[in-house]
């Protein structure tokens, strides 16, 4: 048991206030009613600069708190707290105390008040939210409380509790690190409430538990992951996962000594009932369990224990716990309200779902950007669909992929229905000396006509953004059969785009049949949505579904590693 917990438990059991030793603590608190001559020293000139006369402290403990807040250490603390906001703010812990005439927030005549004791327990249990208790140093707070002997000590204790609470509450509400410090492309701006708002919540609430519950993400996805994190920690304490030795590929019906370990591993995943048939034959029950494991880890669902499946089976439980913790941090970056009706794309899972009133009404596999053309994480709104779109070739693709083809054969792009424009005027590819053209002086526009060979397929869904990312059809359907689908230049290719279109455009009077009829006209057509639909591009490598199934995915973009480094080396308060 940690020191803070030990001190708290012992004090509560003895019926003692957790400010002491008792002979000194009670008189110190009582001094707040004494005459002004007992007041600690404080620079009143400085004090009046930030507090009008009617808001100056009127008793010794209040003067002590004002002096504590006026210290250099406290000012540095305020700067650190404010650095957690996206924009600088003048609000600070000092402002809060000034509003309450510098009266203590966490102390009563009996010592620490109930909220303070609950805060110490919450800090000890911060790991339940995948936060690190060491970030909040609850042992130091408990020692301050236990050793408080005079007004200065009590003032330091109250201010320390306020400052620590603000840090913890900020982490709980918006994460320990800012997303754009992990990756500049992460255009997410989770703002923790300012310190005064956070402290006002404590001051005005009748339940500290409700305060903390209101700050943590209020979503079933976060709660399910939090609960599963606790389950995995219990499994870790019980011995962790069984390792399956390497060896030849295992297929259904085979006999192998390693199958006993494989059965044990599937039982640990709750995919196989304890006491299932034991032996060295790869039977049907084990096959069903392995297929479920493969499905939940984004693998080829074939029941064959090859290299990729064996690697995932043998990921240590500590690594899975870390993976869940990283994704709880990502969940804290996301808004609680994603919209009544929205599109949710998990880039790590390479799947898209449409949610309407908390119910998933459509899912489809997608292809996302290659690791070196990683699709960014952001949110926007789908505002229109385009049937039979043109494809304006991006500059990077035009110069890197198509320019070399033109240099070898000026007519090479004609077979792909790609035309060349100089300004708004179409030109013949034979009118240009392509060997004299390079990336530096390339001034042409390449545009592919609508049709079945168009790179965007026959329909696209637009949510205009600075990344030029959108959802579209594709003529390259074979890629959707692969378990790992990161092959694009950044845009999102949907497997069944006309089914998706029917779901997104149904309220605008468009059925799948009507969309296909418009496609078959071969004419370009814009369909505007009367109500834009939010679209969220996310990157989650661990989650728990409503049915309780736990899912993990490969860190295809290496973002787990980057986030782990940021959480280890940086804290939200020093960014």
UniProtKB/TrEMBL annotation:
Active-site residues annotated for this sequence: 472, 491
Domain L,D-TPase catalytic: residue ranges: 341-518
Keyword line: Cell shape, Cell wall biogenesis/degradation, Peptidoglycan synthesis, Signal, Transferase
Similarity comment: Belongs to the YkuD family.
Name of protein: L,D-transpeptidase family protein
Gene Ontology molecular function: any one: transferase activity
Gene Ontology annotations of biological process type: cell wall organization; peptidoglycan biosynthetic process; regulation of cell shape
Organism: Stappia taiwanensis
This protein's pathway: Cell wall biogenesis; peptidoglycan biosynthesis
Highest taxon listed in the record's lineage: Bacteria
Signal peptide: 1-25
Coiled-coil regions listed: none
């Amino acid at each position: 048991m940690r020191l803070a917990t030990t001190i708290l438990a012992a004090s509560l059991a003895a019926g003692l206030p957790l400010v002491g030793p008792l002979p000194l603590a009670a008189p110190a608190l009582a001094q707040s009613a004494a005459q002004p001559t007992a007041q600690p020293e404080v620079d009143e000139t400085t004090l009046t600069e930030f507090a009008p006369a009617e808001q100056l402290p009127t008793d010794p403990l209040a003067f002590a708190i004002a002096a504590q807040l006026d210290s250099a250490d406290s000012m540095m603390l305020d700067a650190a707290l404010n650095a957690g906001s996206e924009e600088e703010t003048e609000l600070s812990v000092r402002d809060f105390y000034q509003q309450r005439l510098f009266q203590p927030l966490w102390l009563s005549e009996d010592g620490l008040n109930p909220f303070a004791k609950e805060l110490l327990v919450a800090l000890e249990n911060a790991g339940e939210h995948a936060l690190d208790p060491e970030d909040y140093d609850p042992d130091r707070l408990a020692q301050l409380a236990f050793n408080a002997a005079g007004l200065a000590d009590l003032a330091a204790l109250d201010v320390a509790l306020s400052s620590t609470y603000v840090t913890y509450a900020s982490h709980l509400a918006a994460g320990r690190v800012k997303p754009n410090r992990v990756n500049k492309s992460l255009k997410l701006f989770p703002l923790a409430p300012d310190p005064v708002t956070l402290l006002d919540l404590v001051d005005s609430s009748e339940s500290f538990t409700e305060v903390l519950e209101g700050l943590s993400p209020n979503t079933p996805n976060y709660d399910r992951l939090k609960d599963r994190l606790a389950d995995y920690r219990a499994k870790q304490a019980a011995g962790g996962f069984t390792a399956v030795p390497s060896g030849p590929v295992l297929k259904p019906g085979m006999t192998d000594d390693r199958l006993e370990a494989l059965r044990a591993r599937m039982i640990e995943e709750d995919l196989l009932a304890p006491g299932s048939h034991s032996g060295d034959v790869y039977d049907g029950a084990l096959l069903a369990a392995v297929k479920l494991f493969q499905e939940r880890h984004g693998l080829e669902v074939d029941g064959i224990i090859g290299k990729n499946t064996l690697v995932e089976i043998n990921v240590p439980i500590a690594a899975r716990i870390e993976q869940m913790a990283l994704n709880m941090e990502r969940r804290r970056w996301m808004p609680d309200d994603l919209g009544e009706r929205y599109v949710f794309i998990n880039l790590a899972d390479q799947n898209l779902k449409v949610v309407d009133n908390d119910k998933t009404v459509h899912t489809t596999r997608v292809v996302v950007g290659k690791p070196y053309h990683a699709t960014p994480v952001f949110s926007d709104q789908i505002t229109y669909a385009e049937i039979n779109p043109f494809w304006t070739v991006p500059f990077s693709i035009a110069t890197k992929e198509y320019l070399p083809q033109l240099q070898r054969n000026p007519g090479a792009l004609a077979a792909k229905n790609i035309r060349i424009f100089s300004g708004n005027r179409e030109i013949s590819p034979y009118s240009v000396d392509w060997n004299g053209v390079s990336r530096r002086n390339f001034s042409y526009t390449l545009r592919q006509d609508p049709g079945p060979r168009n790179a965007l397929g026959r329909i696209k869904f637009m949510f205009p953004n600075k990344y030029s990312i959108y959802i579209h059809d594709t003529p390259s359907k074979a890629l959707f059969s692969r378990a790992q689908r990161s092959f694009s230049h950044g845009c999102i290719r949907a497997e069944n785009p006309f089914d998706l279109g029917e779901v997104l455009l149904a309220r605008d009077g468009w059925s799948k049949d009507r969309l296909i009829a418009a496609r078959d006209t071969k004419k370009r057509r814009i369909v505007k949505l009367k109500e834009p639909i939010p679209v969220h591009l996310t990157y989650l490598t661990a989650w728990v579904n409503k049915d309780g199934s736990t899912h993990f995915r490969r860190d295809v973009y290496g973002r787990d590693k980057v986030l782990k480094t940021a959480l280890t080396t940086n804290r939200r308060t020093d960014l």
